[in-house]
Specification:
This protein has three domains: 169 residues, FAD/NAD(P)-binding domain; 166 residues, D-Amino Acid Oxidase, subunit A, domain 2 (D-Amino Acid Oxidase, Chain A, domain 2, 2-Layer Sandwich); 104 residues, Helicase, Ruva Protein, domain 3, CATH 1.10.8. It starts with a helix and ends in a 6-residue tail after the last helix. Helix content is 36%, strand content 23%. The mean pLDDT is 94. The protein has 521 residues and is an alpha+beta fold. Strands 3, 4, 5, 6, 11, 12, 13, 14, 15 and 16 form a ten-stranded mixed sheet that branches. Strands 1, 2, 7, 8, 9, 10, 17 and 18 form an eight-stranded mixed sheet that branches.
């Protein structure tokens, strides 16, 4: 059981930290695991819930990036393929090998894409998930029964990784705690206290739940706030130049009947020059993504009508069953924190996904990057901390470090249970301990009351949104169903956290307001 009160008590009883991390998304959590595993006293503060922002809104792919290869960014592809292979070993409970098929409507495109994908295979070396291959028209039809076949010439098949992003973020938070770090959600860093040498002496933090404030001292301060990097930099230096370009990517969730296959479709060139994926996930289908320049970062960005139309139109060019706005079960949007290029760009699809590290006195900021390379990003940041602050030179430990939940062999369990990994038997004991725990939170879905209780006791869930959006993924899978489940979830969380009826009512209202952003109007 992870008790917030114990974490806060530990914070109060520790005078000095080696590393203070601001931000609990992929980057911050990865850094917490890396720093703590090397023996540095580490604390992480997240203003919202872990992975509330971009880190829970990805395309759910662990991939080298086929399109980055086309752009000539071979170094990033090699790095990402290596990290994909490491995640396959270190988080088996979340990693899934996914086959993709590129359907070609001109015969010459088959050999053309196969050459590029053979290079992709070769770059992955011993960590390859399987060989790319040419697929004849007949086999493409059999593999993708809902694909439009008029003028279909052939296909090319290749493999990449798929995962559950919010679950990986949570498991990284748990791993950080197991390695001796503190990782606390709903802790807002409000300002810095500087000494005469202009170094940050302490970070001022407010507990969002109690409004209690803390002054926390640390040697190295890490800014891992993604799209909010610039706001933290401005707290440090009001004249700091803009470092991040937010790029919006949206995804549509539709019923599994639109694909009727365990194989995914990769459309290599859409009308805006991007790739588009149509992927099976938790018995539904994700279609995305877009790449839209956004001026002001928001924690809950709003999908644009033209982005929704673009994805629907592209899907409908390839699938027999026509998708309309009414078919969209949920739409979710994330903002990529891309490193601002030296030359102003009107389009963000050409901006590199490589990460950058910026050192300002004892504030280190990490920008850019992608989920697949989170571990390498963390390694680079901690190496920079060791260099810049004369920390003991401890080699990286995370290349082979098992992430919480990792399993030794493949388990056979449904998707909604499989992501518990090594915790599954303990979860099952909890579920069996009380008949009320076995009741479903929604008649159409397998999620139970036990999962709500488990998430509060063991996974640091504090709100209805934490559970419905990130501990299970119902908000992303079916926003209306999540909205309907909210009252029951609120009641259970209120019981666990000993909250009153007013809190319960506020939670239901807040979640129902949020869910409207995920339902197409």
């Amino acid at each position: 059981m992870i008790q917030r009160e114990k974490l806060i008590s530990q914070l109060e009883n520790t005078k000095d930290w080696d590393v203070i991390i601001i931000g609990g998304g992929a980057s911050g959590l990865g850094i917490a695991v890396d720093a703590a595993s090397r023996g540095f006293k580490t604390v992480l503060f997240e203003k919202y819930d872990f992975a509330k922002g971009t880190s829970s809104k990805s395309t759910k792919l662990l991939h080298g990036g086929v399109r980055y290869l086309a752009q000539g960014d071979v170094k990033l592809v090699i790095e990402a393929l290596e990290e994909r292979g490491r995640l396959k070993k270190n988080a088996k409970h979340l990693f899934k090998k996914q086959e993709f098929i590129i359907p070609n409507y001109r015969w010459w495109k088959g050999p053309y894409y196969l050459i590029g994908l053979k290079l992709y295979d070769w770059l992955s070396k011993r960590l390859s998930l399987g060989a790319s291959k040419f697929v004849g028209k007949k086999k493409v039809r059999a593999a993708l029964p809902t694909l439009k076949t008029e003028h279909l010439a052939n296909g090319v098949s290749y493999f990449d990784g798929q995962f559950d992003d919010a679950r990986l973020a949570l498991n990284l938070a748990q791993t950080a705690l197991e390695q001796g770090a503190l990782a606390i959600n709903y802790m807002n860093v409000t300002s810095f206290e500087k000494g005469q040498d202009h170094l940050i002496q302490s970070v001022l933090v407010e507990d969002v739940e109690t409004q209690k404030r803390y002054s926390v001292k640390g040697k190295a301060i890490i800014n891992a706030t993604g799209i909010f990097t610039d706001s933290i930099l401005k707290k440090f230096n009001p004249n700091h130049k803009k470092m991040v370009v937010p790029s919006q990517g949206i995804h549509l969730m539709v019923d599994g009947s639109f694909l009727q296959s365990k194989k995914a479709i990769m459309i290599p060139k859409t009308s805006d020059g991007r790739v588009l994926f149509i992927i099976p996930w938790h018995d539904k289908v994700i279609a995305g993504t877009t790449d839209t320049l956004i001026k002001k970062p928001k924690i809950e960005p709003t999908p644009l009508h033209e982005e929704v139309d673009f994805i629907l139109e592209t899907m409908n060019q390839y699938l027999e069953k026509k998708a309309t706005r009414e078919d969209v079960l949920s739409v979710f949007s994330g903002l990529r924190p891309l490193a601002k290029p030296k030359k102003e760009e009107t389009s963000t699809k050409e901006v590199s996904r490589s990460h950058k590290i910026i050192v300002d006195e004892n504030l280190i900021s990490i920008i850019g990057g992608k989920w697949t390379t989170y571990r390498k990003m963390a390694e680079d940041v901690v190496d920079e901390v060791i260099r810049s602050f004369q920390f003991e030179k401890v080699p990286v430990k995370t290349t082979k470090l098992s992430i919480h939940g990792n399993i030794s062999e493949k388990m056979s369990a449904p998707d909604h249970e499989y992501f518990y990994g090594s915790d599954l038997s303990d979860f099952k004991k909890l579920e069996a301990s009380n008949p009320a725990f076995q009741k479903k939170i929604h008649p159409k879905y397998p999620y139970t009351n036990a999962q709500v209780v488990w998430s509060v006791r063991n996974e640091m869930a504090r709100t209805v949104e934490d559970f419905l959006s990130r501990r299970i993924r119902l908000l992303l899978l079916d926003a209306k169903a999540a909205k309907e489940a909210a009252p029951q979830v609120a009641r259970l969380i209120a019981q666990e956290l000993k909250r009153d009826k007013e809190w319960e009512t506020q939670q239901i209202e807040a979640f129902q307001k949020l869910s409207e952003k995920y339902i197409l109007q």
